[in-house]
Amino acid sequence: MTDSDLLLSAIKCTALDSLTQLIATYLEQPVFIMDVTGHTISTSTPDLPAVTPDWFRLDTNRGAFQDGTTEYLRQPINTYALKIWFLFVAQSKGYPVTASQLNLVIQVINNFNERYTVNPNQSEMNSLFTQLLHQPTKTDITSFGPLLNQPLVMITATPLSTRPHQDAFKQALQKQLTTMPMTEDTHQNLVLIVPATTAKFEQTALDTLGQQYQYCFFISEPYTDITKSRDFLNICHQAFKAAQKLGELHPVNLTQGYNIYIILDHMTDTSLLRQTMCAQLLTLKAYDRAHHAELFQTLFTYLENDCRLNTTATQLHLHRNSLTKRLQRIDDIIHIDWSQPHKTFGLRLSYRIFDYLDH
């Protein structure tokens, strides 16, 4: 059986046992799948070897185990499941299994799992995730496996309408981020954690899902301590409230852009905020009203683009010379010392305070 024959036949499989038999035919070797506890998930042969506990050790670099004259290659499957699965493939010196064959087989099994969600441990993983969010110090985090060894992000998915939670959206999200721990918060928003690299790669797909189902995603900054997940969930919630207040809800939102608003939300003395804000911005506002100008927005866009002329001109649909004249007029009115970084930082902060108070 060729690689193409395996791929074409695997698409037609609707049960894991039939897929296991297909793989055995492709490799011309007995194969079986067990979880980390030694429970047999599927097998192509009733004659299983004498499997011992060391075959399931997660801290070993061994990729093969001996039973009599037969060697069994071991490859992990569903590495984000609560109970990791292992594929075991028999091989002899006369019929070795190549690395490309083994990689293709793993790909086929994982694709099958994504289509049919055959992993019975996903619900256990989701329950454990729920427990982690409620009792982070009392949850055994060792079961999260590889998620403990890389930066993570918290993601929330909130409906933009008052209609009930959509099962179709949840299924689509689970298909997109297969095997990732998922639960719901007290407001029935979906909550999940994924590796930071995965989240960055999937942002375009999440944007499509958000638009299709009328949901908005909030993605936290990366963190490495999974027991801090509840803290980053709270940040996602607060960022959502800030974006909602500002009228800036998009299909995909990064909490980093709302950190200052989260801080401002915890300040009770708004008069202090008004006194802290650069009064120069109010001067620009007054000038714009009196002369039907747009200097206030021009300065904001210039600062947000790190004072890059070409980028700002393009964004404002201005010629570079026209933008230069506007900036000169702004400097004539409020006298900005561009050589002092703390001055420009103060202006950017003031814009956010102004925006916050305006809403």
TrEMBL record:
Residues 295-353 form the PucR C-terminal helix-turn-helix domain. This is Helix-turn-helix domain-containing protein. Pfam families: HTH_30. It comes from Lactiplantibacillus brownii. InterPro entries: CdaR-like_regulators, PucR_C-HTH_dom, PucR_C-HTH_sf. It comes from the Bacteria.
